[in-house]
Write a structure and sequence with these properties.
Number of strands: 12
Shape: elongated
Largest sheet: 6 strands, mixed
Distance between the termini: 68 Å
Strand content: 5-15%
Radius of gyration: 36 Å
Helix content: 55-70%
């Protein structure tokens, strides 16, 4: 929690005026029992109605001033807590966006969503309580105890005894609940994960009629969350009863000994003083109930703050460069030299990958499932950091490029065609202001998307639903291709991004890409038809490049490539292609 206190610096006025107003309200509350004592001992004892009326007006004034102070504090607390929550979410979201794929894979999307929403809410609540009650409640407890000592030093021993008992109960309860609240928040991550999976994959779940299975999964995770919540609640529930037991015992002792002191005249005790002591004990009891609730709130906030700090402590494994490297116009567009990579400390996912790709050429990458095709292009984009070897673009190591500069050079079309909610234009520009409508239209034409985008209601202002749910699979793929082309990059990477296209549209797309002079194209595909006309093809098998060459060369020299093609072409077609014939 203390590490997040830096967010309060922008609200110094709020955290000063707010508690000060609460202190003023508490002072007024401490004065009330003394006024009541005077009314009983003087006004009522002497039957002086004017005295009672004057002091009654004083009580009303104290109440109004206390209310005004409380309202000011409430406003200050609301502004500060909402401001801290907003700033914390902003910084947390910005930090998450600096992390590489490796860190994001390790933490998990559901955990990140829970921490940026639920955990921040817990901290936000704690900030509000910090301003409103953290100073007021202890001040009332201490103040009421001091005032009781002023009224009767001997009876004030009861107050000190009650406080010692209550504090002795609160400390172990707090320690026990912190651990449980952390587990509870972790369980909430699991609920978020299952919910997200089910909502995004609802069509798959229903297609396989697995609603009951998924329902049971959710119920198991929710039951785990409930167990932690109930266990923490049971422990925390001990606070209020034990506080009230201590307070009620104190009431009995005050009334019992107060009556004796009044009769005996010890400490100058009067009936009004007894009532004042009872009122002070009531104030203490209410303040301690608030303290007990604050213990719960701050325990949850401490657990949430630890989870938030865990994200802030997670540093990106990819160091960003500050200056752009000098590029060599005569160097290859892409160069891999003895590149190795592993997702963990285990076996390499890519092993000794070496190839060069000249500017304006097209590279095809093919291989079986899990052979490392997507991993290879992710290393080129520097979404992951290679373990060893060299990766260069235009003669400069990718590590020497600032991330923003590298992204300008490369336009990537990912495997999963992801579109964002908004307009078609917003999806094509992705927030960039230097992309004109003319560029967008050219990119749509090259991606074979104009045939349906021209028919959309609103043209470039047509609405796209979240995830592109109002479009077909092939339409989404063509729009993601157009989005990459609209950026006018030097290198375009198409990661199996034409799988939903028919052969005719796929052929038109390849022809349009070949017409884009000077653009280097990397095509990852499972279909030999999509990469057979590439200038160079890399065949991957279990993370190794088992063949590099043209389509005809690989058919003759690479058994793995021939096996892939054999599943897609007849034997007669393969023989013709081996001879390098146009097919």
């Amino acid at each position: 929690m203390l590490r997040l206190a830096r967010y309060l610096k922008s609200f110094k006025l709020n955290i000063t005026i707010g508690p000060l107003c609460k202190l003023i309200e508490a002072v007024f509350e401490l004065i009330v029992p003394l006024v009541m004592a005077r009314i009983i001992d003087v006004g009522i004892a002497n039957g002086d109605r004017a005295y009672i009326l004057r002091h009654g007006i004083v009580l009303v004034v104290l109440a109004v001033l206390g209310l005004a102070s409380a309202l000011v504090c409430q406003y200050m607390a609301s502004v500060a807590s909402q401001g801290v929550g907003t700033a914390l979410r902003r910084d947390l979201y910005a930090h998450i966006n600096t992390l590489s794929y490796r860190e994001l894979d390790g933490i998990g999307t559901p955990a990140l969503v829970t921490r940026i929403s639920n955990d921040v809410n817990q901290v936000q609540t704690a900030v509000a309580m910090l301003i409103r009650l953290v100073i007021r409640a202890p001040f009332l407890v201490v103040g009421a105890t001091v005032m009781s000592f002023a009224v009767s030093p001997k009876l004030s021993v009861i107050f000190f005894g009650a406080m010692a008992v209550i504090v002795g109960v609160m400390i172990p309860v707090m320690k026990a609940t912190v651990r449980l609240f952390k587990k509870q928040q972790s369980s909430l991550d699991g609920i978020s994960r299952i919910t997200r999976e089910n909502l995004t994959g609802v069509r798959v779940v229903r297609a396989f009629s697995r609603q009951d299975y998924e329902k049971n999964r959710f119920e198991e995770e929710a039951e785990e969350y409930r167990k932690f919540a109930v266990k923490a609640g049971r422990i925390n529930a001990l606070l209020n009863p034990m506080i009230f037991v201590a307070v009620n015992v104190s009431y009995l002792l005050i009334v019992h000994f107060g009556a004796d002191f009044t009769v005996s005249g010890i400490d100058g005790m009067t009936q009004g003083n007894v009532i004042a002591l009872v009122n002070y004990m009531t104030q203490i009891s209410l303040a301690l109930v608030v303290v007990a609730n604050l213990v719960t709130i701050f325990t949850k906030a401490a657990a949430s703050a630890a989870r938030i700090n865990e994200i802030f402590d997670t540093k990106c494994s990819i160091a960003d460069s500050d200056t752009e490297p000098k590029q060599d116009e005569n160097a290859p567009a892409v160069e891999f030299r003895s590149v190795c990579f592993s997702y963990s400390d285990g076996e390499n996912s890519l092993e000794d990958i070496t190839f060069t790709l000249q500017k304006g050429e097209t590279l095809g990458i093919i291989g079986g499932t899990g052979s490392g095709k997507t991993t290879l292009v992710n290393l080129l984009c520097r979404f992951y950091e290679r373990n060893s070897g060299v990766i260069k673009i235009n003669g400069a190591d990718v590590r020497d490029y600032p991330t923003a500069a590298l992204r300008r050079l490369i336009g990537i079309v990912p495997q999963n065609a992801q579109l964002l909610s908004g307009t078609l234009r917003e999806n094509m520009t992705m927030g960039r202001t230097d992309i004109s409508d003319e560029q967008i239209q050219k990119a749509l034409a090259a991606a074979q998307a104009k045939e349906f985008t021209d028919e959309l209601d609103g043209g470039l202002d047509a609405k796209i639903l979240q995830g592109g749910k109002n479009l077909s699979g092939g339409q989404k793929q063509r729009l993601t291709i157009a989005r990459a082309l609209a950026q006018n990059p030097e290198i375009v990477i198409m990661d199996d991004s034409s799988s939903a296209l028919d052969y005719s549209t796929d052929a038109k797309l390849r022809h349009a890409l070949s017409a884009l002079k000077g653009m280097t194209v990397v095509i990852v595909s499972q279909r030999a038809n999509s990469i057979m006309h590439a200038d160079r093809i890399i065949v991957l098998d279990d993370g190794r490049a088992v063949g590099i060459g043209t389509h005809a060369e690989l058919l003759r020299d690479c058994e793995v490539y021939r096996e892939i093609c054999a599943t897609q072409y007849s034997e007669e077609e393969l023989k013709q292609q081996e001879k390098g014939a146009e097919f």
